[in-house]
Amino acid sequence: MERVVVVTGANSGIGLALCERLLCEDGQLRLCLACRNMQRAEAARSALLTSHPDARVDLLHLDVGSVQSVLAAAQEIKARYRRVDFLYLNAGIMPNPHVDIRAFFKGLFSRNVINMFSTAEGLLTQQDRLNADGLQEVFATNLFGHFILIRELEPLLCQADLTSHVVWTSSSNARRSAFSIQDIQHRNGVEPYSSSKYASDLLSLALNRHKNSQGLVSSVICPGLVMTNLTYGILPSFFWTLIMPIMYLIRIFTNTFTLTPHNGAEALHWLFLQKPESLDARAKYHSQTSGLGRNYTQPRQMDVDSETCEALFSKLLDLEKVVRRKLSEKQAENDAHQKYLSEVE
Ligand SMILES: NC(=O)C1=CN([C@@H]2O[C@H](COP(=O)(O)OP(=O)(O)OC[C@H]3O[C@@H](n4cnc5c(N)ncnc54)[C@H](OP(=O)(O)O)[C@@H]3O)[C@@H](O)[C@H]2O)C=CC1
Ligand SMILES: CC(C)CCC[C@@H](C)[C@H]1CC[C@H]2C3=C(CC[C@]12C)[C@@]1(C)CCC(=O)[C@@H](C)[C@@H]1CC3
């Protein structure tokens, strides 16, 4: 049977590498690249079709940071496909990152050095802002838009006798201490990325608790440190190129330096091949690359608890109601304005 795979943020980096790997695995796939920039999406589609001329690759406009765009994209998916077998929630941002150089050098000579390189704990902060929906942009993009997408696609994801797999591209930068259940959007901190990724770990567990019985399975991965537009936003690409030999050296000690998008997509690809029933809801699946360049996937237990995951789930459902109500009020205002304009013309 033809399998439908939707990938958000598929036009570059890890998302695009995943698409390439999935097409090598199964040429019969129906692959849907859900992207906000259609020009880049078209370029990604052309690149995929160059190596897989017979592949079925669809494009879909989706700005996961805009609730209205998510609702429209979900409508379009429901019109196009009868079900969704895999939903890769990969789109993500880290705006205005700042590396604490002093902390880096301090960490370099501490016993914590390996952990520092694999999680960036204590090294990175970001400056967030509000988006057009009045939500914190990092939370809206990395988590909430994807949550609304799942909610809208439930009829295609939860079908009798069939299993659908939702996969979150999280991070080893996800940290409990960066997240607060009183401030799920991270309005009051400087680590919105870490908070949003920790929230995705919690939400994945909540989805498993609530939706496994309806055939939906959720998993979380970390791609490791990968050279993509996201990391080129942290330090310029020429700098990364300059220190590449050092990074290959570090890879010998921490296999989390996967470095290329192909390697980073390892755990995403591996999950595509697994029986969903065999997966652990509390594990994060890490892409790893050995010093000699061998890729493998390593499960590690996440620092999540049922109580916090339930609290987050219920807060997200509440926020969904508020956002939907605001949107329909705005829509009603627009309709009234249009009516007024047509009457005075
Ligand atoms: N690189 C790394 O070391 C790591 C990355 N990750 C995660 O991997 C994922 C992929 O990132 P990566 O490949 O590294 O970086 P890229 O910047 O190359 O890819 C991010 C993708 O997300 C898309 N995107 C961003 N915002 C939106 C939006 N509002 N709506 C739709 N699409 C959007 C981007 O589209 P556009 O081209 O339009 O910007 C792009 O396609 C992210 O979730 C990131 O957090 C996790 C751990 C490490
Ligand atoms: C390696 C060099 C000599 C110096 C680089 C220092 C830092 C800029 C990096 C050290 C660990 C890196 C890291 C990330 C970003 C760049 C570093 C802080 C991430 C936070 C990128 C995004 C993620 O999601 C994480 C998995 C990465 C963890 C490691």
Automatic annotation (TrEMBL):
<keyword id="KW-0443">Lipid metabolism</keyword>
<keyword id="KW-0444">Lipid biosynthesis</keyword>
<keyword id="KW-0521">NADP</keyword>
<keyword id="KW-0472">Membrane</keyword>
<keyword id="KW-0560">Oxidoreductase</keyword>
<keyword id="KW-0325">Glycoprotein</keyword>
<keyword id="KW-0256">Endoplasmic reticulum</keyword>
<dbReference type="GO" id="GO:0006703">
    <property type="term" value="P:estrogen biosynthetic process"/>
</dbReference>
<dbReference type="InterPro" id="IPR002347">
    <property type="entry name" value="SDR_fam"/>
</dbReference>
<dbReference type="InterPro" id="IPR052834">
    <property type="entry name" value="3KSR/17beta-HSD"/>
</dbReference>
<dbReference type="GO" id="GO:0006695">
    <property type="term" value="P:cholesterol biosynthetic process"/>
</dbReference>
<keyword id="KW-0520">NAD</keyword>
<dbReference type="GO" id="GO:0005789">
    <property type="term" value="C:endoplasmic reticulum membrane"/>
</dbReference>
<comment type="subunit">
    <text>Binds to the short form of prolactin receptor.</text>
</comment>
<comment type="similarity">
    <text>Belongs to the short-chain dehydrogenases/reductases (SDR) family. ERG27 subfamily.</text>
</comment>
<keyword id="KW-0752">Steroid biosynthesis</keyword>
<protein>
    <recommendedName>
        <fullName>3-keto-steroid reductase/17-beta-hydroxysteroid dehydrogenase 7</fullName>
        <ecNumber>1.1.1.210</ecNumber>
        <ecNumber>1.1.1.270</ecNumber>
        <ecNumber>1.1.1.62</ecNumber>
    </recommendedName>
</protein>
<comment type="pathway">
    <text>Steroid biosynthesis; estrogen biosynthesis.</text>
</comment>
<comment type="pathway">
    <text>Steroid biosynthesis; zymosterol biosynthesis; zymosterol from lanosterol: step 5/6.</text>
</comment>
<feature type="transmembrane region" description="Helical">
    <location>
        <begin position="230"/>
        <end position="250"/>
    </location>
</feature>
<dbReference type="GO" id="GO:0000253">
    <property type="term" value="F:3-beta-hydroxysteroid 3-dehydrogenase (NADP+) activity"/>
</dbReference>
<keyword id="KW-0812">Transmembrane</keyword>
<keyword id="KW-1133">Transmembrane helix</keyword>
<dbReference type="InterPro" id="IPR036291">
    <property type="entry name" value="NAD(P)-bd_dom_sf"/>
</dbReference>
<dbReference type="Pfam" id="PF00106">
    <property type="entry name" value="adh_short"/>
</dbReference>
<dbReference type="GO" id="GO:0004303">
    <property type="term" value="F:estradiol 17-beta-dehydrogenase [NAD(P)+] activity"/>
</dbReference>
<dbReference type="InterPro" id="IPR042829">
    <property type="entry name" value="HSD17B7/Erg27"/>
</dbReference>
<dbReference type="GO" id="GO:0047024">
    <property type="term" value="F:5-alpha-androstane-3-beta,17-beta-diol dehydrogenase (NADP+) activity"/>
</dbReference>
